Amino acid sequence: MDILSTLSGVAPHGPLLHVRSFPSRTGATSAMPEWINPALAAALTGAGIDALWSHQSLAAELVRSGRHTVLATGTASGKSLAYLLPGLTAVLDGTRAPNGRGATMLYLAPTKALAADQADHITRLALPGVRAATYDGDTAPEERRWIRDHANIVLTNPDLVHHSLLPGHAGWASFLRALSIVVIDESHAYRGIFGSHVALVLRRLRRVLERYRSAPVFVFASATAGEPGAHASDLVGLPVAEVTHDGSPRGALTFALWEPQEYVDEHGRPHRPAASTESARLLSRLVGGGVQTLAFARSRAGVEAVAAAANRSLAAAESSHRVAAYRGGYLPEERRALERDLRAGTLRGLAATNALELGIDIHGLDAVVMAGWPGRLSSLWQQAGRAGRRGSAALAVLVAADDPLDAYLMKHPEAIFGEPVERTVVNPGNPRLLPPHLIAAAYERRITEADEGVFGPGMWPALDELVAAGQLRRRPGGWFWPQDTRPDAVGSLRTAGEVVAIVEGASGRIIGTIDSASADLQVHPGAVHVHQGQTYVVTHLDLERASATVAAGDPGWSTQAQSRSEFTFATPDAAQLSGSLTVCRGQVTVHTQVVSFMRRLPGGEIIGRHELDLPVREFVTEGVWWILPADLVGEALPAQVVPGALHAAEHAAIGMLPLFATCDRWDIGGVSSACHPATGEPTILVYDGYAGGAGYAARGFEILPQWLSATRALIAECPCQRGCPRCVVSPKCGSGNEPLDKPGAITVLDLVLGELARGPG
């Protein structure tokens, strides 16, 4: 069946801009290695596996030989078998540790669902003597004791290693002494601040393992990524061999770029369907045509909206199929039920956040619809790879959102199909993250001078600061945690920090959760919140008690929060002069406050704006900023145009940075000023949206000419007259996108690029 033909008639105005066909691929096989345990070989034969794909064989041999290895191949390429062969063989062979406990294996995944999925795989092999168990926040205390004492395969996440295993390593002594393999699955998910935290946790794990004279092999499984060996090495701090050639077979894939088209309503007003609206239409058409389909949306609210709209369309067409939503914030039992129904095929359509981008084993999907650019090429191909997992022909559709990067990619498909996947960025030397991890490490085991090889030279100034603050104590034998109680300096590894519970006021039932960093924006008083298709209105937000109270009911409008920001610069870490242009990279202090929210009708009309009284939040991060001389700008633009021109250029630059750095526009922020107090000149700043920085602005500093050239092309190619969401209008602008001047933005970027071309001044 030609799946693409199923979409005929969905949008009669020709929104299909580009179609790329990828032919099917035959697999390259290798014989099963002779060293695997006979019981494992028999179990695999019983499951219909009697040979390996070439990449599985190569990776398994590297791991078996003791090489730290990363396997970076496509979705559904069987990466797990590559590490399970040596891992399960070690466990089954009963490799003896000094205390008499057989060999053990530790598996780390970024989500609970993925760890549970892998545990189910291992359990289904029914191998004698293999005791696999998941260990996460839902594990009961008595089960935890049994796992520590008896399990030889523990499947968990970096958070539990940080919060439980490392500080309580004495209770894990026999398991750690026998540890033969550590698996870090879906390692491409460890990026930015979260990835930097995980890199420091892995370094702390290495120190604790040295205490027990254990030297396991570290194995990384990743989606296709740029320089996966370098990224894995950044994570663990050791050399890592990489396997990247995918020897598995794949069915043919049709990849379509879909641009929602403007239409005129009954009142003669033009409208452009949102990416979520268009994706819901595609999802309902595909599901109604018998095509099992997964639709990805970028936000929780978007997922709920796509699922609800698709179900309305299916109901109107009297279809028996249904679509469900899947996102973070659901209770564990809700997620498990949805995963079972999708695997069984009883659920024909699903709208999901990137929680399902990861490798949960769901077979049989025919099509994937992506509502807007997912932020990275690696994510795009990971999501598209969800289709065709049975080896049959598959369809992937990228639906453009009203966003600068989406608009650029629709006109420049070569940026999708002709570019290598970007490298994932982590920074374990982040000066905001390293000190609290050093405190945790000192509690786990005293820090010595030799630990520079683990933590890097940034350890020394961090230790000096911690000693001066009384948080660590220096003794001849090293640095120690000076208290009897366990430190909690790091807190959450996931930059969200504390979780806010969303509570239904009438029943007291917790219907979901949200991270505290997003609470001001998404569950402020008066916010409209959607969960599993049910609409609620937030009646109270208690930040001290970390709870938001909601009342069920659909008021007929949506809400959008607005914020106000102020910034101060520190002395730049790096600066360069090009002609009369100054470009800097360094520390920035950001003060933000959610000050109001708007109510919008479904058609987009604003029907009210309401003030909020929420606290000012402050954090220190990294930014890149460029400063133009006022006289140069004044010669090119009238004074009244300059603020809007700088503001529009800032918005477009934020929208385009994800093309060059592993982030999306919600990971970064910005500000512009015709005369910034710190510089006295026209200034544009783009900064990382995470305390301490995440490497995004630093990447922008490195590739500023390419980044701003693409930004200029985006604005110039957009057919709108005064600016739109596809070029300079930002969905998260705290000042309501005022003022903006699209032609002026082109002039500003021409000035910047001209000065950059002149070279060092």
In short:
With 761 residues, this protein is an alpha/beta fold.
Task: Write structural notes for this entry.
This protein is an alpha/beta fold and 761 residues long. The strands form 7 sheets. Strands 1-11-18-17-14-16-15 form a 7-stranded mixed beta sheet, sandwiched between helices. Helix 10 (275-288) crosses helix 11 (300-316) and helix 21 (642-656) packs across helix 23. The chain is globular. The N and C termini lie far apart (61 Å). The model is unreliable at 95-100 (pLDDT under 50).
Low-confidence stretches: 95-100
Q: What structural category characterises the helix and strand content?
A: alpha/beta
How many individual helices?
A: 24
Helical content stands at: 25-40%
Q: Strand order, biggest sheet?
A: 1-11-18-17-14-16-15
Distance, first to last CA? 61 Å
> Roughly what is the average pLDDT, rounded to an integer?
87
- The overall strand count is 32
Sheet of most strands? 7 strands, mixed
Keywords:
alpha/beta; single chain; 24 helices; 24% strand
Topology overview:
Blueprint: E1 16-22, E2 29-31, H1 38-46, E3 51-53, H2 54-64, E4 69-72, H3 79-93, E5 104-108, H4 112-124, E6 132-134, H5 141-150, E7 153-156, H6 158-165, H7 173-177, E8 179-184, H8 192-211, E9 217-222, H9 228-236, E10 241-243, E11 253-258, E12 263-264, E13 270-271, H10 275-288, E14 293-297, H11 300-316, E15 323-326, H12 332-344, E16 349-352, E17 367-371, H13 377-384, E18 394-399, H14 404-411, H15 414-417, H16 434-444, H17 452-455, H18 459-468, E19 473-475, E20 478-480, E21 499-504, E22 510-515, H19 516-522, E23 528-531, E24 534-542, E25 547-552, E26 558-569, E27 574-578, E28 581-600, E29 606-611, E30 617-627, H20 630-636, H21 642-656, E31 668-673, E32 683-688, H22 696-702, H23 704-717, H24 742-758
Parallel strand pairs: 4-9, 4-10, 5-7, 5-8, 6-7, 8-9, 11-18, 14-16, 14-17, 15-16, 17-18, 21-25
Antiparallel strand pairs: 1-11, 2-3, 12-13, 19-20, 21-22, 23-24, 24-25, 26-28, 27-28, 28-29, 28-30, 30-32, 31-32
